[in-house]
Amino acid sequence: DLKSRTEVRLAAIVAHSTATFSEAHSYLDALFFYLDREYELAPVERGTFIPGRAGEIRVGGKAVGFIGEVHPAVLEQWGIEMPSAVFEVTLDALLG
Q1: d(Cα 46, Cα 34) in Å, to the nearest integer?
Q2: Block means of pLDDT (10 residues each) for the chain, length 96 residues?
Q3: Nearest-angstrom CA–CA distance, 80 and 69
Q4: pTM for the predicted model, two decimal places
């Protein structure tokens, strides 16, 4: 009745002085390798991320998550002093 749902998600963040999209992408590759699944990235623009350093994670053409390098303005707003890159995957969509 409330139109709510429960989703199981997996998220990771890389935060250190040289953290980049490429590093987060390498961890995403490892995750999908061990899950024995294929995926693709489609470019997206999200205000949270640096333009050109964000993507939608897709499996079988369906969006299952996102990845990106966090924009410095967002980091500053949260008081975070380290460059950061993140990804999040909805496991229900991926494994269901």
Answers
A1: 28
A2: 86 96 97 94 94 96 96 96 96 78
A3: 13
A4: 0.89
